[in-house]
């Protein structure tokens, strides 16, 4: 029976007859003098095989285990930009120099009270409040809306008043 062992210097695997146990030989790979071990180094018995933990080895061999994550926390010298922007001023109150330009939309449908059309009175009252010196322009507008009572799309009109105030 052969004795199988490794050279302690270069780890070359060597096989020698069991009759040479305890003698000194020269390693054929590195030339170092080594002593042959006393007895055969038996391989593990086939009945005593060690089964590795497949779950742990599968996780360690997975692509996710091999990905290196380099996470950095941003460091700034200036204040961070806001995540939610502030609301812009409404279109009805735009500042031009030291005066504000305002817009008022009056819809005819919003001027209906108990079946009476008060559109002319509402527009006239608003224009008197603004005053002619502050009035810049008056535009007619047409629009479509869904009437809940009749369950239909209706077309209506109104005015857009641009004024200083």
For the sheet with most strands, the description reads:
4 strands, antiparallel
Structural class: alpha+beta
**Count of DSSP-assigned helices:** 3
- What is the CA–CA distance across the termini? 112 Å
Sheet with most strands: strand arrangement: 5-6-10-9
Count of distinct strands: 10
- Radius of gyration over alpha carbons? 47 Å
Helix content: 10-25%
Shape: rod-shaped
What's the order of the H and E elements?
EEEEHHEEEEHEE
Outline the low-pLDDT stretches.
none
Which range does the strand content fall in? 35-45%
Rounded average pLDDT: 78
In quaternary terms, these chains amount to single chain
Topology:
Layout: E1 2-6, E2 13-17, E3 24-26, E4 33-35, H1 54-61, H2 63-66, E5 94-96, E6 99-107, E7 112-113, E8 116-117, H3 119-130, E9 135-147, E10 152-164
Antiparallel strand pairs: 1-2, 3-4, 5-6, 6-10, 7-8, 9-10
């Amino acid at each position: 029976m052969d004795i199988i062992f490794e050279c302690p210097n270069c780890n070359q695997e060597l096989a020698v007859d069991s009759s040479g146990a305890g003698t000194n030989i020269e390693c054929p790979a590195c030339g170092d003098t080594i002593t042959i071990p006393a007895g055969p180094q038996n391989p593990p018995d086939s009945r005593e095989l060690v089964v590795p933990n497949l779950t742990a080895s599968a996780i360690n061999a997975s692509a996710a285990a091999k990905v290196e994550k380099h996470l950095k926390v941003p460091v700034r010298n200036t204040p961070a930009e806001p995540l939610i922007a502030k609301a812009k001023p409404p279109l009805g109150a735009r500042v031009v120099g030291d005066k504000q330009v305002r817009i008022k939309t009056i819809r005819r449908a919003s001027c209906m009270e108990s079946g009476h059309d008060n559109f002319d009175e509402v527009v006239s009252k608003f224009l008197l409040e603004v005053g002619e010196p502050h009035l810049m322009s008056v535009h007619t507008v047409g629009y479509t809306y869904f009437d809940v009572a009749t369950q239909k799309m209706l077309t209506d009109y109104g005015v857009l008043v641009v004024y200083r105030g």
